[in-house]
Design goal:
six-stranded mixed sheet; five-stranded mixed sheet; globular; Calcineurin-like_PHP; Serine/threonine protein phosphatase; Ap4A_hydrolase; bis(5'-nucleosyl)-tetraphosphatase (symmetrical) activity; Metallo-depent_PP-like
Length: about 375
């Protein structure tokens, strides 16, 4: 079992600090973001946990982080719940029978699946206990690395932690579960003068009627949330918080990578004033009231709101209709305006305009070369 560790550093003079969270095995996206922010070895680089799972480059991501740390003492990697839970599942014999279930649930990618591929193990034929031992032996060097990672990093005016801290003066005594798994930190807050910077939950979860993966800087709560949903959300981005400081003075800026194709409006698209409805975690269950050819009339179970949902977004989970990251917003456009294309669904396109996500008819768009 991995243990909580606390590191405290004080930087005197000018510095630049880049903070990235929840890479989730998307190494190519991570490298592209480092290039975009012009990362250099004299920068401080802080990775806020959950750098593995949910993507196809888990082992490669760990090795790349180790390479970065070997090249610079200013790189800090913080433990997230994914690293903690994976090590516990592989290390503890009582979880041997859960490994196959875990693989079926997460789909492609992840450290265990990569280990199985390297070891040529067929999960349908191998004994669970024997398989767990083989995986543990293969992943031992990675788990040894995880054991060196802190759960908290204090850095000048900031506290960096994966999920959050408990709202108490002796916050250093927060449970490991709170530090890496807390789901309510943005709501419960903290009582410190410093900013607490977290990942763990996609920032889009904090918006009632919009899908927005941008970094949230809440000056009143002194909370900065930076998880852009990579590997978790169907619409996502990988964010970087950039802190430019001089002692206790600092400025904040942000950058992101969102690899989506660009399209341009070929006509003006006017829409009437509308009330926007959103379906996303944790209120993702709906009841289908009337099935339509393109859109179905549905009721969001948690809120009781009734609105139309594009049929392709509906799926069954435990005999209940669900969907993720959906808004019924119709996007207004001016001719020549450039947007990002999320997907094409029949005659409609799901697009992003200035961090707003919604629908427009596909025939109103053309691809930007």
């Amino acid at each position: 079992m991995l243990e909580a560790q606390h590191i405290k550093i004080k930087v005197v003079g000018e510095y630049r600090c880049i903070v990235i969270s929840d890479i989730h095995s998307h190494l190519d996206r991570f490298k592209a973001l480092l290039k975009k922010v012009d990362y250099r070895y004299d920068d401080y680089l802080i990775i806020l946990g959950d750098f593995i799972e949910k993507g196809t480059q888990a082992l490669e991501t760990v090795r790349f982080l180790q390479e970065l740390q070997a090249k610079s003492e200013r790189v800090y990697v913080i433990l997230g719940n994914c690293e903690y839970a994976l090590e516990e599942m592989v290390d503890n014999p009582k979880y041997a029978n859960q490994i196959v279930h875990y693989l079926n649930r997460i789909g492609k990618g992840g450290m265990i699946r990569q280990a199985l591929e390297k070891l040529n193990i067929d999960i349908k034929k191998e004994n669970p206990e024997v398989m767990q031992v083989k995986i543990k032996q293969f992943l031992r060097p990675y788990f040894q690395y995880f054991k060196t990672l802190p759960t908290i990093l204090e850095f000048n005016n900031f506290i960096f932690v994966h999920a959050g801290i408990e709202n108490r003066k002796d916050w250093q005594n927060s449970s490991t579960s709170s530090l890496i798994e807390m789901r309510t930190f943005y709501q419960t807050g903290h009582c410190l003068d410093k900013y607490v910077v977290v990942g763990h939950l996609p920032t889009s979860n904090q918006y009632a009627n919009a899908i927005n993966n941008d970094i949230i800087i809440d000056k009143q709560k002194r909370i900065i949330s930076i998880d852009g949903g990579t590997g978790v959300k169907s619409i996502s981005q990988l964010n970087a918080l950039i802190i430019t400081g001089d002692g206790d003075r600092f400025k904040l800026s942000k950058e992101y990578i969102q690899p989506l194709p660009l399209y341009q409006a070929v006509v003006d698209v006017n829409v009437e004033k509308q009330v926007v409805n959103k379906v996303a975690w944790p209120n993702f269950e709906v009841e289908v009231l009337k099935q339509g050819k393109l859109f179905s009339t549905c009721k969001q179970i948690k809120t009781g709101k009734i609105f139309k949902i594009k049929n392709e977004f509906l799926y069954l989970n435990n005999q209940k209709y669900c969907l993720d990251d959906y808004v019924d917003y119709l996007i207004p456009l001016e001719k020549g305006e450039v947007i990002k294309l999320v997907g094409i669904y029949g005659p409609y396109a799901y697009v992003i305009k200035d961090n707003e996500i919604g629908w427009v008819k596909y025939r109103y768009l053309k691809k930007v070369n």
